[in-house]
Amino acid sequence: xxxxxxxxxxxxxxxxxxxxxxxxxxxxxxxxxxxxxxxxxxxxxxxxxxxxxxxxxxxxxxxxxxxxxxxxxxxxxxxxxxxxxxxxxxxxxxxxxxxxxxxxxxxxxxxxxxxxxxxxxxx
Length: 123
Prior knowledge:
- This protein is an alpha+beta fold.
- It has a single domain (6-121), classed as 2-Layer Sandwich (TATA-Binding Protein).
- The chain has helices at residues 16-27, 79-93, 96-121; strands at 6-12, 33-37, 40-46, 55-63, 68-76.
- It has a 5-stranded antiparallel beta sheet with strand order 1-5-4-3-2, covered by helices on one side.
- A hairpin with a 4-residue loop joins β4 (55-63) and β5.
- α2 (79-93) runs antiparallel to α3.
- It is elongated.
């Protein structure tokens, strides 16, 4: 996992089927494609509200006797565009643009993480 990728672990006290339905209801409109395989939900090109960057979300659902554990991994897409912007930032702004770009991408990561956590708190 990269520095700008999402990683969230949550434990919920709810029904597994109910959690899957709520996740699909909340995340499907914000992504291009969603699939369910056994205990894993994937959302392609997920773009949280108030963010510009997209992620591929993979949600692993592990159930135990007392609770259900959600492991959410989000891989940042369009990394090559960021690499080109970093190189241009080094060439034209003597590195100052790189600092701004890194802060922007990190802020987008925090915003997406807060949005996902807010949705999970509603469960």
